[in-house]
Amino acid sequence: MKPLLQPTVLALLAVAACKSGPTWTLRDPGPLSPDNRALLAKAEKPYRKGEPFDEMRAQIVADPVAAWWWARMAVRDVMSAREVRADGIEQGSAAGQHADNQLEERIREGRGGSDDGSQLLKAAAGKRDPVEERGLLELQKLGAVALPCLMFDLACNTDGFSRQNGVDLLARQGDAAMPIVRAELLGSDEAMHRRTGAQFLAARMPEAASEEELIALLKDRDYGVRAAACAGLDRGGAAARDALLRAMANDEDAFTRRAAAKALSLHRGKLVAEQLCDYLTRCQSQRDTAGCEAAQASLQIHARSRGARSIEAWRAYAASPAADVVGTPSPASK
Predict the structure, then answer these.
(1) Rounded to an integer, what distance in angstroms lies between the CA atom of residue 70 and that of residue 24?
(2) How far apart are CA 326 and CA 131, in angstroms?
């Protein structure tokens, strides 16, 4: 992968004028006026030198098209740095694989598979370089005016890596991103968009509002949306725990049931341990190997132990005082 390093606004405009634009862009915000084009080129000089340009930034954000192009330059700085660090992990995902198989994994923990781009983002989340830091800081300063770019260039993209970065960058914008996320992702007819919206809510957990919305998403018609909601509920409270137990026991899709079992690894107590044992028993009878692995992994986290056990051994653990602990184990135990 050969990322574009520190592309200028004018370079981005030139690429956009061609038939094939940058893979991470999705929508055309429209052409810049000659005055705004000159303004962005002028503002870019102090931006790259780390010098203040507050007055010019104020002029940029006053125009939605100029603000979009300016945010796009900051996004390209962030994406370039992250692509370099993720290079070689799974190039197919960065090139545009759809997130259809492992969307239940949270972006913040980076526990997903390569299909949703979260493994790439985990690899990209190490040491940042000055280019990335500068882009992140600029997006923070832009605030709400950066949201259209983050939403339509990234979060709505068909490329898993772009989409995961969109979730990350939108989550960094805090409450300001909620209206556009609800309108464009959670309210979308496209399952992929709703899944991305669920991942955004998961990244904001354990906020109460996010927990309520994630629980509501467990009724979504798409199994991937439900699975993504399960993953976000692992850091929730009693309502989240009960919702996960229902999903593990009753969801019609095996993938979603596994996602619920995984999420229950961070919910302690005898009731959870007993029902994980029940789930393990069902998976064994149904020869659901992946479900058995999910149940074993969660029970090991509960017991703070390693290694698979027989169902009899796990039921003995669930009946012991050791399982009767209410609270959340440290994620480090994972």
Answers:
(1) 15
(2) 44
DSSP assignment letter at 287 = T
| Whether this model's pTM surpasses 0.85 | no
Locate tokens 């969109």: which residue? Answer: 166
Amino acid present at 116: D
The radius of gyration computed from the CA coordinates of the chain, to the nearest angstrom, equals 22
Instruction: Tell me how far apart the terminal alpha carbons of the chain are, to the nearest angstrom.
Output: 32
pLDDT of 17 above 70: no
Judge residue 242's burial from the number of C-beta atoms within 10 Å of its C-beta, 0-12 exposed, 13-18 middle, 19 or more buried: middle
What are the residues whose beta carbons fall under 8 Å from the beta carbon of 168, sequence distance 6 or more? 107, 121, 203
Does residue 62 contact residue 43 with C-beta atoms inside 8 Å? no
pLDDT tens sequence across 271-299: 999 999 999 999 999 999 999 999 999 99
DSSP secondary structure letters along 99-142: --S-TTS-TTTT---GGGTHHHHHHTTSS--HHHHHHHHHHHHH
pLDDT in tens, 31-52: 999 999 999 999 999 999 999 9
Tokens 């995984």 -> residue: 262
Buried b (16+ CB within 10 A) or exposed e, 118-145: bbbbbbbbeebeebbebbbebbeebeeb
